[in-house]
TrEMBL record:
Primary location recorded for the protein, binned into one broad class: membrane
GO cellular component, one term: membrane
Membrane-protein topology: Multi-pass membrane protein
Lineage: Eukaryota, Viridiplantae, Streptophyta, Embryophyta, Tracheophyta
Any one GO biological process: oligopeptide transport
Taxonomic source organism: Cucumis sativus (Cucumber)
Transmembrane domains' residue ranges: 43-62, 74-92, 99-116, 146-169, 190-209, 215-235, 332-355, 367-389, 409-429, 449-469, 490-510, 535-557
Protein name per its UniProtKB record: Nitrate transporter
């Protein structure tokens, strides 16, 4: 038995459904194949997003604020749909099939976008928006045709992102000390790899869009994703697959319904009297938080279908472990809520900061930097921060504290601090840019001001993302119940989604409150007449308040871990399946 335990991985199977052989499945190679899909997804999504605002303003002749909202709504939908992908992965498809199907959908979306941007009849006649006020905006049909591929891409992105990080961590066994240590490094290297895709997007892909043609660039995205799918499928025999435990959303609703139906019942003081049918190795100890949910575990008449020896009706009676799993998810929510504002500040880096760059001097010798490529400094900050953290901080911290780097909550806190400073720096730079615009004339197309003044805001927010993304990913995957990891990854990604939607909401509110009949205000159509510095200042204040709220939630948070005994779980995982294999 002991030898078998060492050879197989608990609660994981191979592509045939047999217990996963430790030496033949999992590890860094299969994890890298999984990450390859995410790299190409990032290349496509970010390659479109960072330069989409210039297409909407320059080709479709839309106002800058409207264009920024279209971009943030697109990005918000990408991450919001990760909840749908997570539900499908946990309930029906599994992570492997979810990744393959939704990657194919994104390939279709980028291919369609390549065709649409090529056809001249699908955008208005060309003109120069700054020189003329009579530029014809895209009509409803033309806007509908650009929305179609964008939201096909959003659907594909949502499905991929919900499962790819979880499927990557599935390739490492948390109960094996060596593989657990590898998993700790996986989160950083996963994001390092993903950021490399973003780097290619904001440099090579944006350059191709501006100098060669958008349709060619989007075609490359489609081909690269198709290639990544083929490579991903090549690893089918090497992957480890976690056994599905049913829909976590259904499980959550079962606990809520049972607790509500028994809301008038008196709760037992002795927690041992509550119902529990989970195996001893997978049980989660009872906690006193959210005690109203404990009523779902009170045994009452009619809870069992036929007799006490039969299984209970899950909508009437839930085990203590099932209740505690729901509590674990509820404990995540305050941290979840206080990380949304970071992604609101992040949204400015691919919208208004790009518009700022388009008005500034971008020449580097004989080469003119595309405005959409300015986020390269953002990505460079991520890569530098991750490399510094991975190669220096993590080893030193392990020697000093015995832990591989900062805790997930500490990384989130650092990210929030850096983004707050980033918005403050953005406000100061915008004040300088507006003073120059006022001095030389607000109608000047290119202000005599170096675009490199924008580097501090990109660098600070980029470094913040390196910490907060890895911290959030680690937090939501490791602090969620085993059967809800894909859904919790989707929950994490909704913070990105809501961050973009909050950005759109703030833009709409600020434009409405500060605007006037002539279109001026904090977010005027021409940002040389706007007060973007005040908008950035508002975000700085909101970020500061949010950080204080995060500290309160982090102090309140108390993690709860299920008991894990390898021997019992391996025995449970074996059984008839092992004999069959």
């Amino acid at each position: 038995m002991d030898g078998k335990q060492r050879l197989t991985v608990a609660d994981a199977v191979d592509y045939k459904g047999c217990p996963a052989n430790r030496s033949k499945t999992g590890g860094w190679v299969p994890a890298a194949l999984v990450v390859g899909i995410e790299l190409c997804e990032r290349l496509s999504t970010m390659g479109i997003a960072v330069n989409l605002v210039t297409y909407l303003v320059g080709t479709l002749h839309l106002p800058s604020a409207n264009s920024a909202n279209i971009v943030t709504d697109f990005m918000g939908t990408c991450f919001l749909l990760s909840m749908l992908g997570g539900f499908l992965a946990d309930s029906f498809l599994g992570r492997y099939k979810t990744i393959a199907i939704f990657a194919s959908i994104q390939t279709l979306g980028t291919g369609t976008l390549a065709v649409i941007t090529k056809l001249p009849q699908l955008h208005p006649p060309p003109c120069h928006p700054i020189a003329s006020k009579n530029c014809k905006q895209a009509n409803g049909f033309q806007m509908g045709m650009i929305y179609l591929p964008l939201y096909i891409i959003a659907l594909g992105t949502g499905g991929i992102k919900s499962s790819v990080s979880g499927f990557g961590t599935d390739q490492f066994d948390e109960k094996d000390d060596k593989e657990k240590a590898q998993m700790a490094y996986f989160f950083n290297r996963f994001f390092l790899f993903v950021s490399s895709g973003t780097l290619l997007a904001v440099t090579v892909l944006v350059y191709l869009q501006d100098e060669v043609g958008r349709s060619w660039a989007y075609g490359i995205c489609s081909v690269s994703m198709f290639t990544a799918i083929l490579i991903f499928l090549c690893g089918t025999k090497r992957y480890r697959y976690k056994i599905s435990m049913g829909s976590p959303i259904v499980h959550i609703f079962q606990v809520l319904v049972a607790a509500i139906n028994k809301r008038k019942m008196e709760l037992q003081l002795n927690a041992t009297l509550l119902y529990e049918d989970s195996a001893a190795t997978s049980r989660i100890d009872h906690t006193n938080q959210f005690q109203f949910l404990d009523k779902a575990a009170i045994v009452a008449d009619g809870d069992f279908e036929k007799s006490v020896s039969s299984a209970p009706n899950p909508w009437k009676l839930c085990s203590v472990t099932r209740v505690e799993e729901v509590k674990m998810m509820m404990r995540l929510l305050p941290i979840w809520a206080t990380t949304i504002i970071f992604w609101t500040t992040y949204a400015q880096m691919i919208t208004f900061s790009v518009v700022q760059a388009s008005t500034m001097e971008r020449s580097l010798g004989n080469f003119k930097i595309p405005a959409g490529s300015l986020p390269v400094f953002f990505v460079a900050a991520i890569l530098i921060t991750l490399a510094f953290y991975d190669r220096l901080i993590m080893p030193l911290w392990k020697k000093w504290k015995g832990q591989p780097g900062f805790t997930n909550l500490q990384r989130i806190a650092i990210g929030l601090i850096l983004s707050t400073f980033g918005m403050a720096a953005a406000a100061l730079v915008e004040m300088k840019r507006l003073s120059v615009a006022k001095a030389v004339g607000r109608s000047t197309a290119t202000l005599p001001l170096s675009v490199f003044l924008l580097i501090p805001q990109f660098f600070l927010v980029g470094s913040g993302e390196a910490f907060i993304y890895t911290g959030q990913l680690d937090f939501f995957i490791t602090q969620s119940p085993k059967g809800m990891k894909t859904m919790s990854t989707g929950l994490f990604l909704t913070t990105l989604s809501l961050g973009f939607f909050v950005s759109s909401f703030l833009v709409a509110v600020v434009k409405s409150v500060t605007g006037s009949m002539d279109g001026q205000g904090w977010l005027a159509d021409n940002i040389n007449y706007a007060r973007l510095d005040c908008f950035y200042g508002l975000l700085t204040i909101l970020s500061t308040i949010n950080f204080v709220a995060f500290l309160v939630c982090a102090i309140w948070y108390k993690p709860q871990k299920p008991k894990q005994l390898l021997e019992m779980e391996t025995s449970t995982n074996g059984g008839s399946g092992a004999e069959k294999c």
